[in-house]
Design a protein that fits this description.
By secondary structure, the chain is mostly helical. It contains 9 helices and no strands.
Length: 208
C-alpha cells in the first residue's frame, strides 16, 4: 500500500525486493574485478555471441564500440541496449564493477584500457621488482623480440642515450614489439618508472 492506502502494482514490490537483494549481495561480495564479473555474468552472452552480443576476442566487433569510450559503453550497459537488459541483467553490479567488466572485455578484444579503480580505496603501489617479476621478465629476461636483456649493461645505456625519461616514456607508450605499459594496462606511470628503474639498475649499477 502507498501513503494514501492504494495498492501498489506488483512490479513495484518486486523491484524493491530485487534492489534490496542486490544491495545485500553487493555488500557481501565486495569489490570485484572485471575478470570476476565477466566470468560470472557477462560470459553467458559475450563468449558465444548470444543475441548479437560482441564476442570477447572479436577485435573487429569491439573496435567500433571502443570508439564510444568507457562512458558511452557504460551508459549502454546501465540502461540496456538491444537484447541486453539494464545492468547486464545483474542488479548486484555496481557502476564501477560494470566499468571494470567492460574494460576487461575491451582489453581482451584488442584494446588497452586502464581498469577503473575506487579512488576512495586506492591499492598499494607495486614495487619495480614485483612488476618486473610478474611481467617484464617474460621478454627482458632473455632479450625476447629485441628487448634489452636485464644485465646487459651496454644495451640499457644505449636505450638511455637520450635520457632516462625517454626510456620510461617509451615503456609507457610502447616501443617496437613491446605494447604500451608492457602489456599491463593497469600500471600507473609511477609503477612503470619503478619497473624500468629496477631493470636499469640491475643492468648498469655494479653489484655491491
Amino acid at each position: 500500500m502507498d501513503v494514501k492506502g492504494r495498492a501498489r502494482p506488483a512490479w513495484v514490490a518486486a523491484l524493491a525486493l530485487a534492489a534490496m537483494a542486490a544491495a545485500q549481495h553487493s555488500a557481501a561480495s565486495g569489490d570485484r574485478s572485471g575478470q570476476e564479473i565477466v566470468e560470472n555474468v557477462c560470459s553467458t552472452c559475450h563468449t558465444t555471441g548470444r543475441d548479437g552480443a560482441p564476442k570477447i576476442g572479436d577485435a573487429k566487433a569491439w573496435e567500433k564500440r571502443e570508439r564510444l569510450g568507457l562512458s558511452g559503453l557504460t551508459s549502454h550497459a546501465l540502461e540496456g541496449v538491444r537484447k541486453m537488459p539494464p545492468h547486464g541483467g545483474s542488479l548486484s553490479l555496481t557502476d564501477l564493477e560494470i566499468k571494470r567488466a567492460i574494460t576487461y572485455m575491451v582489453n581482451h578484444s584488442g584494446g588497452s584500457w586502464v581498469e577503473p579503480i575506487d579512488r576512495r580505496a586506492l591499492p598499494a603501489a607495486r614495487t619495480g621488482e614485483q612488476i618486473v617479476q610478474a611481467q617484464c621478465v617474460k621478454c627482458h629476461g632473455a632479450g625476447l623480440n629485441g628487448a634489452p636483456r636485464i644485465g646487459d649493461k651496454s644495451a640499457w645505456i644505449e636505450r638511455a642515450k637520450l635520457g632516462f625519461d625517454s626510456v620510461v616514456r617509451s615503456a609507457i607508450h610502447g616501443h617496437g614489439a613491446m605494447p604500451a605499459r608492457g602489456g599491463m594496462a593497469d600500471l600507473t606511470d609511477d609503477e612503470m618508472r619503478a619497473a624500468v628503474t629496477y631493470m636499469f639498475q640491475k643492468s648498469v649499477k655494479p653489484p655491491k
